[in-house]
Amino acid sequence: MNFEQIIYTVDGHVATITLNRPERMNALTRILETELRTAIEQAGSDKDVRAIVLTGAGRAFCAGMDMEELEVLPPEDIRAEQWMRPFDMNRRADYQTRYSYFPAAPKPVICAVNGAAAGLGLVMALYSDFRIASDKAVFATAFAKRGLIAEHGISWMLPRIVGHAHATDLLLTSRKIDAQEALGMGLVNRVVPADRLLAEAQALARTLSADVSPRSVRVMKRQLWEAPYQSLGEAVTLANAEMVESIRSEDFTEGVAHFVERRPARFSGR
Description:
Its EC number is 4.2.1.17. This is Enoyl-CoA hydratase. By secondary structure, the chain is of the alpha/beta class. Helix content is 41%, strand content 16%. The protein has a 6-stranded mixed β-sheet with strand order 1-2-3-5-7-10, with helices on both faces. It has a 4-stranded mixed β-sheet with strand order 4-6-8-9.
């Protein structure tokens, strides 16, 4: 598929999605938003893709909604049917909404934050499975400075990642923080030099594609994202059921075989 505002490439088992409006700091438009969801769906359904890297072109990751579109955005657009369509009918409704669909993707999403991640740019990063930041990255919620509120579930997600105190600080002050402060509060997994960011993110994607079972990754991603809605007993019951299925899988057979035979794994994802 040809895209206008993103770049979509596949190298081996890794799909890389690049937000491509560098002249506007990759600010979101309806076109970019639609293309991003299409690309995530495409990567999720591609049997050869095992991990997804999301980054931005130029000096920013995503500066939020494009102000020219925000100025004329009808209030009811937030709940427009085109944005609320189901991503995966087998996943919780919580992960079917406009920006919360990354957790419903069956492949891990690695967010390589190359520069500013503000507003909706931060929201996208929060819904990713991994966040690797360039040493030039900066983060801000931005909503309070625009007269808005904590959008798209960020009031639920942000405290679960950085804790209530940090979330309150970031949301109510809208202040910018740099990559090192983000690392200190647990907002990102690691910080790397800017010229190594994409290579580091893609290396992690290759590890997830080759060194561990794609089937295990797929199931564990689902367990992690659904656990906040479960009691301990429910999580244990689900894990026991999934354990039976994993022992029956091809990847379990290969996981034992490559260890015993002392050779690289050849996981099928089944």
